């Protein structure tokens, strides 16, 4: 449902999550090269891990010496990069002792040296030389440079309901939580990537913002979202629409819930939600994700008592990344997690009626789809 809740965007690493937990704020959007006019899809993430284990320097869990000593990761990782030709991910690690994280009347904030994030603005700078990238495999990234100063205007939220509410947050009931405060967001500002300047404008940004936190990740891992939607029914762009699908195999109180997804289609001002935690809606989900020689392909069908949504997406592997994260316990379980921002596909939405066949509300062409798929390997 489209319900803003800035408290769900607060930093969540307290209690047992302080010693074994991660929390990140994620943003992706499209920009245009100032000189060539070429589009490029970018992402920026502020990832925190195990604050109670913080030391004077960031602790990288993939460093052999740390593994042998039993030291678990602890840091702020400023993650950024781009998709498309020569897709790149860059990481900068900062000791959490040198980071200011909290919230005020305007929502969350993260501040560390020349990097910062809050509900309204993102700034940062990451530079990794080829020599450093080769010498530090524990950084889990490519070489390159990227700096940014971006304004954020979040328009539509995906609030998953009581599953990420205050009681279940306090109980640390789930292994992985999700809140999309800006599943449709407008971004504006500038980026410089490998010396090339890019301009971000609201109307062409096709932006998305969410956060995840918890003790570990999910496997399988599924995510699809886009607000670049064109109706086949009316032949026009949908200006007040966005869909968001995420999940895989959540764990509640240590019990795995196999092949469960959460999704919402905000279709021209109305929410069509498919949420397994809202059991009274009788939500049913089927999904299939596969890797071919040159593509990742997703198929998702969800149904409740009120609606049906069928989503088919594909993305060229040549324009995607094998995105890298390590778990709070220091183990890197996701070694083939495909992540992209240039997916394309179709979404069909039906409204259900008593005693009548479902009514096809629309068939929609989707572009600039943020997409993710992977399983532990």
Describe the protein in words.
The chain is mainly beta and 377 residues long. The protein has one domain (6-374): AttH-like fold (Beta Barrel). 6% of the residues lie in helices and 55% in strands. The chain is built from four helices and 25 strands. The protein has helices spanning 64-69, 130-135, 166-171, 202-205, and strands spanning 22-33, 39-49, 75-82, 88-94, 100-104, 107-112, 115-118, 121-128, 144-158, 176-193, 196-200, 207-214, 221-226, 228-231, 242-248, 251-252, 255-256, 260-267, 270-275, 284-291, 295-303, 307-316, 321-322, 338-353, 356-374. Strands 1, 2, 3, 4, 5, 6, 7, 8, 9, 10, 11 and 12 form a twelve-stranded antiparallel β-sheet that branches. β18 and β19 (270-275) form a beta hairpin. The longest helix has 6 residues, at 64-69. The radius of gyration is 20 Å and the shape is globular. The model has no long low-confidence stretch (mean pLDDT 98). This is Tocopherol cyclase. Pfam families: Tocopherol_cycl. GO terms for molecular function: tocopherol cyclase activity. InterPro entries: Tocopherol_cyclase.
By CATH, the architecture is named Beta Barrel
* DSSP summary: helix tally: 4
Strand count, sense and barrel status of the largest sheet are:
12 strands, antiparallel
Give the number of DSSP strands: 25
Residue-averaged pLDDT, rounded?
A: 98
CATH topology: AttH-like fold
Number of domains: 1
Q: Which CATH top level class fits?
A: Mainly Beta
Ranges with pLDDT <50 over ≥5 residues?
A: none
Query: What is the molecular shape?
Result: globular
Structural class: mainly beta
What portion of residues belong to β-strands?
A: over 45%
Spell out the CATH superfamily: AttH-like domain
Termini Cα gap: 34 Å
In N-to-C order, the SSE pattern is EEHEEEEEEHEHEEHEEEEEEEEEEEEEE
Question: Roughly how many Å is the radius of gyration?
Answer: 20 Å
Estimated helix fraction: under 10%
């Amino acid at each position: 449902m489209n319900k803003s809740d800035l408290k769900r965007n607060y930093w969540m690493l307290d209690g047992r999550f302080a010693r074994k937990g991660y929390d990140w704020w994620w943003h992706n959007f499209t920009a245009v090269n100032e000189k060539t006019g070429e589009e490029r899809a970018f992402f920026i993430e502020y990832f925190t891990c195990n604050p109670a284990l913080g030391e004077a320097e960031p602790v990288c869990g993939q460093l052999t010496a740390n593994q042998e000593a039993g030291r678990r990761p602890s840091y702020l990782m400023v993650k950024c990069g781009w998709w498309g030709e020569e897709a790149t991910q860059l990481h900068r690690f900062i000791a959490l002792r040198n980071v200011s994280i909290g919230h005020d009347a305007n929502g969350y904030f993260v501040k560390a040296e020349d990097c910062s994030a809050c509900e309204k603005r993102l700034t940062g700078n990451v530079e990794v030389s080829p020599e450093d990238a080769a010498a530090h495999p524990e950084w889990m990234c490519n070489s390159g440079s990227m700096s940014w100063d971006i304004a954020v205007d979040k328009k539509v939220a995906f609030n998953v309901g009581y599953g990420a509410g205050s009681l279940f947050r306090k109980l640390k009931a789930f292994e992985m939580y999700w809140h999309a405060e800006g599943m449709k967001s407008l971004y504006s500002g500038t980026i410089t990537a490998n010396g090339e300047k890019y301009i971000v404008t609201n109307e062409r940004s096709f932006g998305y913002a969410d956060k995840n936190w918890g003790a570990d990740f999910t496997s399988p891992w599924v995510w699809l979202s886009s607000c670049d939607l064109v109706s086949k029914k009316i032949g026009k762009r949908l200006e007040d629409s966005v869909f968001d699908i995420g999940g895989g195999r959540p764990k509640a109180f240590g019990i795995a819930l196999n092949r469960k997804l959460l999704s919402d289609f905000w279709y021209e001002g109305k929410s069509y939600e498919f949420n397994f935690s809202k059991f009274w809606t009788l939500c049913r989900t089927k999904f299939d994700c596969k890797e071919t020689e040159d593509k990742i392909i997703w198929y998702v069908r969800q149904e409740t008592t009120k609606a049906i949504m069928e989503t088919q997406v594909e993305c060229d592997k040549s324009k995607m990344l094998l995105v890298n994260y390590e778990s709070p316990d220091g183990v890197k379980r996701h070694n083939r997690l495909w992540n992209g921002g240039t997916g394309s596909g179709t979404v069909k939405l039906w409204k259900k009626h008593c005693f009548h066949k479902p009514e096809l509300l629309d068939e929609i062409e989707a572009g600039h789809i943020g997409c993710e798929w992977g399983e532990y390997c």
